Amino acid sequence: MAKYIIDGIEIEESSGNVFADLGIPNAEQHKIKADLVIEITCAIQRLGLSQQEAGDRMGIPQARVSRMLRGDFSNISERKLMDCLNRLGYDIEITAKPADGMVGHLSFAVA
Questions:
Q1: CA–CA distance from 47 to each of 40, 54, 92 (Å)?
Q2: Which of 21, 51, 55, 106 sits in a 20 to 30 Å window from 39, CA-based?
Q3: CB 1 within 8 A of CB 72
């Protein structure tokens, strides 16, 4: 990551994953879950759903929807978040390909 000094302030360029930048273990998984929740939030807003309606549609209690939308999604699996997106009208495609290095990486993209 590149570092810059602007007006006497040292600025370090992000890797694109705030969890990795902060040194949090399993950073890629955290980023994917965060990206899934961002897309769930967008879908709920686009569909004009209340938290109760979204919860009913996703098969989870309203209180869990509220916690998720406030950023507390550590107790929800990636699989459950993908299921929520399915129930909000999204197709999910998982693509696997050989990695460039010894260890592969996880990523999330919205079409």
A1: 10, 9, 18
A2: 21
A3: no
Q: Is the dihedral of CA 38, 82, 31, 53 positive or negative?
A: positive
Instruction: State the number of CA atoms in the 13 A half-sphere of 96 facing the CB.
Output: 1
For the entire predicted model, the pTM comes to 0.81
Contact in structure between 89 and 13 (CB atoms under 8 Å): no
The per-residue pLDDT for range 48-99, each reduced to its tens digit, is 999 999 999 999 999 999 999 999 998 999 999 999 999 999 999 888 888 8
Q: Phi-psi region for residue 26, left (φ > 0), alpha (ψ -120 to 50) or beta? A: left
